[in-house]
Amino acid sequence: MRGAPNGFRAVVLGTPKPLHSTQWDLFLSTHNRATFKFEPSDEEKRKQLCEGILHLLDKDLKTSCRVACLEALRILSRDKKVLVPVTTKKNMQILMKQAKLDTVEEPLEDVTDFPVIVEALKCLCNIVFNSPAAQKLSLELNLAAMLCNLLKKCKDQQLVEDIKCFDLRLLFLLSLLHTDIRSQLRNDLQGLPLLTQALESAFSIRWTDKYITAENQEMSPLSLQETDCAIEALKALFNVTLDSWNVHSENDSHEFRYMTAILRHCLLTLGPTEDKTEELHSNAVNLLSNVPVSCLDVLISPSDQEDTEETDIKYNGMNMDAIQVILKFMEKRIDKGSSYREGLTPVLSLLTRCCRSHRNIRKFIKAQVLPPLRDVSNRPEVGTTLRNKLVRLMTHVDLGVKQIAAEFLFVLCKERVDSLLKYTGYGNAAGLLAARGLLAGGRGENWYSDDEDTDTEEYKSAKPNINLITGHLEEPMPNPMDEMTEEQKEYEAMKLVNMFDKLSRDKVITPMGVRPDGTMTPLEEVVGQHPTNDQESSDSD
């Protein structure tokens, strides 16, 4: 059993005797290590225990004793209320000293107590996450700069993977919770190249050309530790690049293109489990959403016919493996059927940006999502194809999801209204067209190549009988007015007019019309702008 740290008194537990090893081991048992909720009645004791541990850590203790103290503090630091009296500048400096953040020159090769550093970093992660006071102190104590220095020491050090992982996690938390630290990392500490190098080392990448990594189809999955390091680096990079929509210099362009090449490698890499692979790819997609669109062409690379594997996906001489992975990731998120806003919106937004700016990517994705129509017997939203799934999202209750799904399909159709209606039907596309002022037809503002879509013979023969509203082939229905007399038709028409008038007067609905420019407006305004034939004739000579 691990003994209690020398000099630690159990006075905080209400007795004047030293804390025995059995008591200490009981506190650090597996049960307590998994504890995240604490009894309110013991709050004062936990505060005193934290203060006692930090007091001990300020003394010269054996490595095993320091590890035990830090493990206990890590458990206690999950309680936000306990941290109020202990998050002082002195106590933060004590923990930073244990994590070797105060030693600028000392290399990690000379440090023997790696477990102490790891546990201290874990404690700092909990404290920074749970304490606003600690977040402010982190900026005052220049914690981000010290973490960057520690990360540089971890470069190419296989024995310090745990240290690197929790260093990256702490950088992620600091940049997430404090915008000033995010700016400091981006502008003063060269956080983008440093974190990119940390991401690269997690994959052990070999380069064959500028922005092209060596690909091995039989490459073994990453270990759990490598995957966790990569995920933490991806999350920290996301915060650092959050406002980087435009490239302002050649150096910025190089940094983003270099990072995008690593992210392409990441998308083609597997984790130790399916869940870890999805988490890895999810964070890679999130980060790609921050990459300037001019740098996203690195996701595809010229396909060398001699070195190409049979499993590689090629289109117009370009390797599309990474794009195919993103498409499969998107479809998997759709199939989950929940958390669309958080899980699906980023990948749809990324694909929309890629398609709008890169012709080869758009044409490849359109061939996958909107292949030439042959069977139009079913509605566009009915079925199991990727087109059917995306069309269903166009009428989703979540406005953000509905908009981005419609935008994605609209871009695939080169923002041409007639092409969009062919694949989705007017009913599904009406929301997007109304928002864009395109109800009268036309196309969007962006320019695309002039190559035209070719309709299949099956579609051409069925086109005259396709219902434009539903977007599918319908058998001709008998006209119920054919057997009516003129009086009956007039009666039914007036009945319908009266029903609409009542709904309009009661403010249940507002009848709308379409202006010549394609935007919607109340129907009375449209009528007022277009005089009837009788009015025209009465005003004429």
Topology (elements, then pairings):
Blueprint: H1 21-27, H2 30-33, H3 43-57, H4 63-76, H5 89-98, H6 114-130, H7 132-140, H8 143-153, H9 161-177, H10 179-187, H11 191-203, E1 207-209, E2 212-213, H12 224-240, H13 250-267, H14 274-288, E3 301-302, E4 314-315, E5 318-319, H15 321-336, H16 340-343, H17 345-357, H18 359-369, H19 386-393, H20 399-412, H21 417-424, H22 426-436, H23 457-462, E6 466-467, E7 472-473, H24 486-505, E8 512-514, E9 520-522, H25 523-529, H26 533-539
Antiparallel strand pairs: 1-2, 3-5, 4-5, 6-7, 8-9
Helix pairs in contact: 3-4, 4-6, 5-6, 6-7, 6-9, 8-9, 9-10, 9-12, 11-12, 11-13, 12-14, 13-14, 17-18, 17-20, 21-22
SSE-based structural type: mainly alpha
How would you describe the shape?
Answer: elongated
What is the mean predicted local confidence, pLDDT?
Answer: 83
Portion in strands: under 5%
Low-confidence stretches: 1-24
Percent helix among the residues?
55-70%
What's the number of helices? 26
**What Rg do the Cα atoms give?**
32 Å
Gap between N and C termini, in Å?
A: 111 Å
Strand order of the largest sheet: 3-5-4
Work out the number of β strands: 9
| Largest sheet descriptor | 3 strands, antiparallel
